[in-house]
Amino acid sequence: MELLKQLLAINPNYILVGLMVLFYSLELLLPVEYKFRQKPQHQLHNIVMGFIFVVASFFWATIAVSSIDWLNKNQIGLFYIVSIPTWVQLILSVMLFDFVSYWFHRTAHKLPLIWRLHRVHHSDTNVDASTNFRGHPIEFIFWFGPSNIVAAAIFGLSNLSLGLYFLIITPLFFLEHTSLKFPTWIDRTVGLVFTTPNMHKVHHEQDQYYTDSNYADIFILWDRIFGTFKYKPPSQITFGLKEFDEDKKQTFWYLLKSPLVNMNRVSSAELNNEKPSDHTNVLS
């Protein structure tokens, strides 16, 4: 427990910068699944967008910590009704934060107003480690940020468990978006319970049939249980959203204002001129 507290005391800015440098270097040195032109320009737009996103996230983190402190002081949540060992509670807490995030994420794909914000993340036509930073700041403040408070209010989760959750999920976000090549045996083994990079990339497929799947950040188990799991070989994935295919729509300024722009979402049937049932969903 003391080691966990020491890890959580590390400045999160150091962690973010260190992870970005690490994965950027790995993408240069190791085999990658996808190669694309204008990588520096692509990363610049994502990182500038990410800078604002990170500022918004730290603003919300202050609110989240204060809110969860209040909830804990007033003993609100299921964990205050049952007594379980601390280490079990920490493990369950990480799962429950991820569980609530799964439902927030899934809902973001269904509510048109929230989707206008969330599509900024999905608009990236070249997914790599910098895609982790690509998100609209308003989305975090008004949608994904509150999910952790909701989880704490329902289940009685602590700020210590929230810190552990972020300690796990931050490097996973980079790993899941990196363009590094991963063998499919990882999907057939680790992927039975946990979200693998290949599985998350399916979520970034241009085809809405696949975009609306694999919502979980840590435990793909939620997608398997609730019927939103899909699979497609990474070599067959086309990233982005059809409505963002133009170069001008990949720039920082356009992404920032894009929630105000009316765009018809291109359905799977429109994109492929076929029925969703025609898709394959095989992990072999």
Give the secondary structure arrangement, pairings included.
Layout: H1 2-8, H2 12-29, H3 39-73, H4 86-108, H5 112-122, H6 137-155, H7 159-177, H8 184-189, H9 197-203, H10 208-211, H11 221-225, H12 252-257, H13 268-272
Please provide a written account of the structure:
This protein is mainly alpha-helical and 284 residues long. It has 13 helices and no strands. α4 crosses α6 (137-155). The protein starts with a helix and ends in a 12-residue tail after the last helix. The chain has helices spanning 2-8, 12-29, 39-73, 86-108, 112-122, 137-155, 159-177, 184-189, 197-203, 208-211, 221-225, 252-257, 268-272.
The residue ranges in which pLDDT falls below 50 over 5 or more consecutive positions are none
Hey, roughly how much beta strand do the residues contain? under 5%
Oligomer: single chain
Would you tell me the overall average pLDDT? 89
Largest sheet: none
Shape summary: globular
Rg measurement, Å: 19 Å
Number of strands: 0
What's a quick, concise take on this entry?
This protein is mainly alpha-helical and 284 residues long.
